[in-house]
User: Which sequence fits this backbone?
């Protein structure tokens, strides 16, 4: 970020939990790589967020390093962008406390992701799960972020982030930049392969998602078994044909062929052809990422250094905002 001081700021994060899926790639990671050169970017591994559901400690550590490797393998540049662990920058948790005092319980009660997760983890509906969007607002506002690329499932969290920022600014002028979401329509919501009315999710059964580290054989098998419909017509119609439309979205995004010409070319063909092309496009996209991922995972010292150095860069920026917030709010700063 050295000689690019005037670029706007981009922030996003991914949780190091479960497998990183093709949904995460198409909805988020891929867009990070497309936007990276036009912004000063921070890409966080949001390990504190992952603690809102129980994690195996060794698994969490491993997944954290793997996600760092995936960020870089997907094409992000850790010399330019700040790729770091959320827990290495204590200012996230500190600002979250402050923002908790500007967030209404009524707002948090409306969060659909909380309702879903509370349903899934009935034995552990903890306060962290409830205030999750406040920590997310802190992540974003800490860096005076302009743009936040995410999938559609995070839209409501972006809205509450903007509301919190505006509320603080209305009382204490000019504290936060109010961020804009970046959620391109076609890639906003990649659906489950087995239940195409639901989003593809890393916490669902294995056959419902493609993991970025799946082998070509596994990818082909999962797509071959993907649920479609019985009318046999290849047409983009997410409402009535969610399975077929999902395959078309994936294929169009990964191959670069626009939806109109893709559907025109495949119309009249069987679903087998669509599944096969989608699998091939996915395999080809993931091949270089997987190769680089395995190289990086063989050099843990390098990954540790990237995360250590970049946490320091993040702390410097985070501290600037946090000091400003403390001062504006009247916390005594001798
Ligand atoms: P997470 O880890 O669940 O997902 C990471 C990113 O992937 C997107 N995504 C999808 N996009 C399209 N189709 C899908 N099926 C799909 N599944 C996931 C998510 O929308 C997300 O962009 N709360 C966030 C992490 C976070 C964050 C932040 C993001 C914490 N702080 C600040 C942005 C800014 C989450 O759990 O994402």
Assistant:
């Amino acid at each position: 970020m050295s000689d690019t001081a005037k670029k706007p700021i981009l922030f996003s994060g991914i949780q190091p939990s479960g497998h990183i899926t093709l949904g995460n790639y198409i909805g988020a990671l891929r867009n990070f790589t497309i936007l990276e050169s036009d912004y000063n970017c921070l890409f966080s591994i949001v390990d504190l967020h992952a603690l809102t559901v129980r994690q195996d400690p060794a698994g969490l550590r491993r997944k954290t390093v793997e996600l760092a490797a995936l960020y870089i393998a997907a094409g992000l540049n850790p010399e330019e962008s700040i790729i770091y662990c959320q827990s290495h920058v204590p200012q996230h948790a500190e600002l979250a406390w402050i923002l908790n005092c500007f967030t209404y319980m009524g707002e948090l009660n409306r969060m659909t992701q909380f309702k879903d997760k509370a349903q899934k983890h009935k034995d552990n509906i903890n306060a962290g799960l409830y205030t999750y969007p406040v920590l997310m607002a802190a992540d974003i506002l800490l860096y005076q972020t302009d743009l936040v690329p995410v999938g559609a499932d995070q839209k409501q969290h972006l809205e509450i982030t903007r509301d919190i920022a505006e509320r603080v600014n209305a009382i204490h002028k000019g504290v936060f930049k109010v961020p804009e979401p970046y959620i391109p329509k076609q890639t906003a919501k990649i659906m489950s392969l087995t239940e195409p009315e639901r989003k593809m999710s890393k916490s669902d059964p294995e056959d419902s998602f493609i993991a970025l580290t799946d082998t070509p054989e596994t990818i082909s098998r999962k797509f071959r078994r993907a649920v479609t419909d019985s009318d046999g017509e290849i047409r983009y119609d997410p409402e009535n044909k969610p399975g077929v439309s999902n395959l078309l979205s994936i294929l169009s995004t990964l191959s670069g062929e626009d939806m109109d010409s893709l559907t025109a070319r495949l119309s009249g063909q069987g679903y087998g052809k669509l599944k096969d092309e989608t699998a091939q496009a996915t395999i080809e996209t993931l091949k270089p990422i997987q190769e680089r991922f395995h190289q990086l995972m063989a050099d843990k010292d390098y990954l540790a250094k990237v995360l250590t150095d970049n946490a320091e860069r993040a702390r410097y920026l985070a501290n600037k905002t946090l000091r400003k917030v403390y001062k504006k709010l009247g916390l005594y700063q001798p």
